[in-house]
Amino acid sequence: MNLCNRLTTLTLTSISLVVGFLPLSSTPAQAQDDVYIDRDCRHVPNSVIQKLSDPPWFHYQNIFYSRKFTANGKPYWLYVARYTDGAAMFCVSQPDFKQARLISTSEISGQFIEKVEQNSNQSSMFIVRVIQGQNTGAPFVDYRLDLSNPDRPVITFVRGGCCVDFD
Which residues are registered as beta bridge partners of 94? Predict the structure, then answer.
C-alpha cells in the first residue's frame, strides 16, 4: 500500500470515528439564551421552538437587542429581532411580553440595523443606526426613537454619514 492510500485510509477512518461520536439530536441547535418572537412580537417559548421540524428562523425571529425603559411612570420593553434576510423588526411591550406590538415606521422597520443604543438607563430615548446596505463602506443614518409615549413612537433624523466598516 503506497503512502497516498495509507493517508486516505487513515483520514477516512479518523473522520468516521469523529462522526460516530457526534451527538445526534432531533431538535434544532440553538443557544440556551436565545429568545424568539413571532411576527406579531409575541414571545414564543423555547419548548415550542424545540418541537419544530424546520429550523426556528423560518417561523420566528431571534431577539438581538432588548432594553427596559420607563414611560409615563410605567415599565416597558423595547426589543429588536432580525428576519432571515437580516432586516430588523422593532417591538414594544409591557414586561413579560404583555400587550406586545410592532413599531412600524419606514425609517427603521425592515431596515438593516448596525446598532441600537439607549440614551441612558431606563430612558425612553434610543439611537438607531440604519445601514444603507450590507457591504463594508455602506452609508448610515442615525435616528432618534422616542418612546415616551409607546403607543405613538416618534422617529427623528439625527445624522447621516459614511461609511460603516464591518471589520
Answer: 98
CA distance 90 to 158: 19
- Give phi and psi for 17, each to the nearest 5: -65, -45
Asked if 126 contacts 119 with a C-beta cutoff of 8 angstroms, the reply is yes
Per residue, what are the HEC states of 50-65?
Answer: HCCCCCHHHCCEEEEE
**What average pLDDT does the segment 15-38 reach?**
46
| Helix (H/G/I), strand (E/B), else coil: 129 | strand
Specify the residue for cell string 427623528. 156
Instruction: Give dist(CA 45, CA 63) in Å, integer.
Output: 13
Supply the pTM of this predicted model.
Answer: 0.72
C-alpha cell at 71: 414611560
